[in-house]
Write a structure and sequence with these properties.
Blueprint lengths: L4 E10 L8 E8 L2 E6 L6 E6 L4 E4 L1 E3 L15 H4 L3 E6 L14 H12 L14 H11 L4 E4 L1 E2 H9 L8 H16 L4 E5 L10 H12 L4 E5 L7 H15 L3 E3 L12 H13 L4 E5 L4 E5 L13 H9 L1 H13 L10 E5 L9 E2 H8 L3 H12 L4 E5 L3 H8 L4 E3 L20 H16 L5 H8 L1 H7 L15 E4 L20 E6 L2 E5 L2 E2 L13
Parallel strand pairs: 1-4, 1-5, 6-7, 7-8, 9-10, 10-11, 11-12, 12-13, 13-18
Antiparallel strand pairs: 1-2, 2-3, 5-19, 14-17, 15-16, 15-17, 19-20, 20-21, 21-22
Helix pairs in contact: 4-5, 5-6, 6-7, 7-8, 11-12, 14-15
The chain binds zinc ion (ZN).
Length: about 525
């Protein structure tokens, strides 16, 4: 007997991702698409899921993911799909795995090094010459999540100019534009910058307008990890907006935050600035719901200290005069600004004994100032430690989540508690971001309604990306769906124990296939690399 549909989700509360009020309805899926929504009690299906008491939402869209670097080692992206994420936007903060250019592989691997540790050996480096080849590779290995790729401006600059902080000449500019255009033609949705990370940080506004313009000409977006999220937050947002206006690209502010205790008041002003700009230019933003960020320990140094290659950096770290200059610059600028107790080391492959300790405590134990400990530790570890940095205000985070333009991004990556990635530590956002919004900020604190929370995670994100067939539950859309219990959904990952799966995310479908069932990954890999115009 033939069935009406492949799958019907019965009796759920459908929160469709548009922001509209929820409705009680059944959802039918056939051939990977949403086939019907309504009372389907008389219809038959091959498979049925009973969603009584559960919310049926579009699969969550993670607008800021670094998991492209981890997918070759973990195509199942466990910690992401178990949060309900079905699509990730990769190639962020100027750091895409491609195009590395020729002869530049080693330098770029150094850039990625702290994040990757040993799994860097699994990266298909020879395929990283072109974004298209890397995306073909991801398609071949089959993923559990969909990937929306960006190309990283830092990587393009590195491919053309190495670690040279100077201005590009005309032929270098032309080559950078060419690489950006090529990546767009190979499927990128846009370009990203990471303007605190060399070599992207050496770029002037004009250089960025130049390269973003050729991306915009192909309909691409500009995702910006802005130049400064602390004392120069407002100036840095203005720069990103200006790049958008002059290039014609839609601007997206990545992992929005006001960093540093003395910059708390800047969050509200930055949001006002963005509100005003949104009247005249298209823009969006994302955030993760935590008061700490995470990056490599070496990012604490002033950017002049990071010029050139790693041996230049090590020379500076050994030189007492240069150390004094770094110390004085870090007192008033950069990420820490004297907040050494706010620096928690989460991982060091070469010095695992650092992990789990605050920088201030490690320095005190060794009888050194925090700065001198930092320089010694970077030398001893070849800059491999990763850190979590407590630098935001909870009141600001609550206010930011409520902003109508604010969508969600983990800024994390897919990990598992067993296998190749089990040794990699992380910020809890890699496991908990989306359930934390739903459990803590929506249910417990009632800052936003369930419909609004789901909209931020799905329909709003899809509208930023111009994804027409995902992000909203409607007929003929791709059947990426997340079914969760609104009464129990919550993150369980903490800074001390970050690799802990959330509760309450019951079932996750990607293109109609069950990737998570009763909270457990099924091993299914129906994800798709989504290419612009593809
Ligand atoms: Zn970033």
């Amino acid at each position: 007997m033939t069935q009406d549909y492949d799958l019907i989700i019965h009796n759920g509360t459908v929160v469709d991702g548009s922001g509209r009020p929820s409705v009680q309805a059944d959802v039918a899926v056939s051939r990977g698409l949403i086939a019907q929504i309504g009372d389907l009690s008389r219809s038959s299906s091959v498979t049925r899921i009973d969603a009584a008491g559960l919310v049926v939402a579009p699969g969550f869209i993670d607008l800021h993911s670094h998991t492209d670097l981890f997918l070759p080692a973990l195509p199942t992206a466990d910690s992401l799909v178990c949060q309900g994420i079905t699509t990730v936007v990769t190639g962020q903060c100027g750091l895409s795995p491609a195009p590395l250019g020729t002869g530049n592989c080693r330098r770029t691997r150094e850039l990625f090094g702290a994040r990757l540790n040993r799994i860097g050996e699994i990266m298909p480096w020879p395929l990283c010459s072109h974004l298209g080849k890397y995306l073909d590779f991801l398609t071949q290995i089959c993923l559990s999540v969909n990937v929306v790729p960006l190309v990283g401006q830092g990587v393009i600059r590195g491919a053309v100019m190495g670690g040279n902080p100077g201005s590009p000449d005309d032929s270098q500019r032309a080559l950078m534009r060419h690489l950006a255009e090529e990546a767009m033609d190979e499927g990128a949705f846009g370009i990203s910058t990471g303007l605190i990370y060399p070599p992207g940080s050496w770029s002037t506004t004009q250089e960025l307008v130049d390269i973003v313009s050729c991306v915009a000409a192909r309909g691409g977006m500009y995702f910006s990890h802005i130049r400064n999220e602390g004392e120069k937050l407002l100036e840095s947002i203005r720069e990103a907006l200006e790049i958008g206006r002059l290039s014609g690209a839609r601007v997206h502010i990545s992992h929005f935050k006001a960093a540093g205790k003395c910059n708390c008041d800047k969050s509200v002003r930055a949001l006002e600035l963005l509100d005003k700009a949104a009247e005249t230019q298209p823009l969006g933003m994302d955030m993760y719901p935590y008061t700490a960020g995470s990056t490599s320990l070496v990012s604490l140094l002033p950017d002049w200290a990071l010029q050139g290659n790693r041996s230049d950096l090590f020379m500076r770290l050994k030189d007492p005069k240069q150390r004094r200059k770094m110390t004085s610059d870090m007192a008033t600028g950069g990420l820490a600004q004297g907040n050494w107790e706010g620096v928690l080391i989460i991982q060091s492959e070469s010095r695992p004994e650092y992990a789990g300790y605050r920088l201030s405590d490690l320095a005190a134990q060794s009888g050194l100032t925090p700065e001198e400990w930092l320089y010694d530790a970077l030398l001893a570890t070849h800059c491999d430690p990763m850190m979590v940095l407590f630098m935001m205000s909870e009141d600001n985070r609550r206010n930011e989540i409520c902003h109508p333009l604010m969508a969600i991004g983990t800024d994390g990556f897919g990990l598992a508690t067993a296998g190749l990635t089990s040794g990699i530590m992380t910020h809890p956002r890699s496991f908990g971001t989306f359930p934390r919004i739903l459990g803590r900020y929506c249910r417990e604190e009632k800052l936003i309604s369930l419909e609004t929370a789901v909209y931020k995670m799905t329909g709003l994100a899809a509208s930023y990306l111009n994804l027409k067939d995902r992000g909203i539950i409607r007929e003929a859309s791709v059947a990426d769906l997340t079914i969760f219990n609104p009464k129990t959904v919550i993150d369980t990952a903490t800074y001390d124990c970050p690799k802990s799966y959330p509760k309450g995310i019951d079932t996750v479908l990607v293109a109609g296939q069950v990737v998570v069932s009763q909270g457990e990954h099924t091993g299914a890999r129906p994800g798709k690399v989504i290419r612009r115009n593809g």
